[in-house]
Amino acid sequence: MAMERRNTKARGAAAGPGPRRAPGRPRDERIDEEVRAATLALLREGGYGALSLEAVAERAGVGRPTLYRRWAGKPQLVVDTLVRSMGEAPAADTGDTREDLVSGLSTLTAAFAGAVGRALPGLVADLAVEPALAQAFRERVFATRRASMAAALARGVARGDIRGDIDVELVLDLLAAPLYYRVLFGHAPIQGRTAGDVVDLVLRAVAPETAPAQRTAPPGAGRPRGKRAGRV
Fold first, then answer.
1. pLDDT digits (tens, 9 = 90+) for 61-100
2. Which of 18, 72, 88, 177 is the most exposed place for a label (fewest CB within 10 A)?
3. The dihedral of CA 21, 22, 26, 29: what is its sign?
4. pTM above 0.85, yes or no
5. How far apart are CA 170 and CA 153, in angstroms?
6. Which helix (H) or strand (E) holds 175?
7. Cα separation values, 21 from 15, 17, 24, 26, 204, Å
8. Is 130 left (phi over 0), alpha (psi -120 to 50) or beta?
9. Burial class (CB within 10 angstroms; exposed 0-12, middle 13-18, buried 19+) of 196
10. How far apart are CA 105 and CA 145, in angstroms?
11. Do residues 133 and 75 lie in contact, with contact meaning Cβ atoms separated by under 8 Å?
């Protein structure tokens, strides 16, 4: 019996430990939101270079260990904040190509109308000089959002709403660029209808070509005209 118990324990050890229960209290999402709000505020005020986890903790009114338990470092905190504000997979499959694309761009218009839009100009400059931030941004924000929008374009091709020979990367640029351009340069506002206007313009450009409708010939067309009376 003792030998059997030892063998059973040995087999359990070889199989590896079971699922571990998270220690302590459940994660408080309210604290997460306060930390993300503090992160965006500090990005807007001083940029990525001046931001520190200590400053975020002080602004959010939490202890530094709270941040270190949630995020591995500053790049992860900043990018997670952007993901939560902008969405990773924005283009929902609604069954309608236009609605899919509008839903995707609407997440940008909503984010750019708030704290993300105010912090973005400085953050874009920081991406050029902060390799760790740039890599995390490309992987979790840029690539995942483009993959979601590319899937929406592929659904549009399958439905016959979009030509099959489009340059997908170029179309993705055309969809998002007007929103980034406006928030970065501030020359024109991003309005509630902007996402729909951009999608409509792009969809007209990538719509399948249709054969021109045949014109209905008027009665008598093509018949030789007779000579008028009284004329030679």
1. 999 999 989 998 888 899 899 888 887 778 889 999 999 9
2. 18
3. negative
4. no
5. 12
6. helix 168-185
7. 18, 12, 9, 11, 53
8. beta
9. middle
10. 10
11. yes
Query: Pick from 111, 85, 93, 83: which is nearest to 195 by CA?
Result: 111
The structure tokens 């002080």 sit at 58
Residue pair 149/172 in contact (Cβ under 8 Å)? The answer is yes
Give the span between the Cα atoms of 89 and 104, in whole angstroms. 8
Contacts of residues 150-153 at CB distance under 8 Å and 24 or more positions apart, as own/partner, are 151/91, 152/91, 152/93, 152/97, 152/100, 152/101, 152/104, 153/101
Tally of residues, the chain: 232
CA atoms within 13 A on the CB side of 43: 28
**Tokens 């206007």 found at:** 197
Query: How far apart, in whole angstroms, are the C-alpha atoms of residue 72 and residue 181?
Result: 32
What pLDDT, in 10s, does the model give residues 194-211? 999 999 999 999 999 874
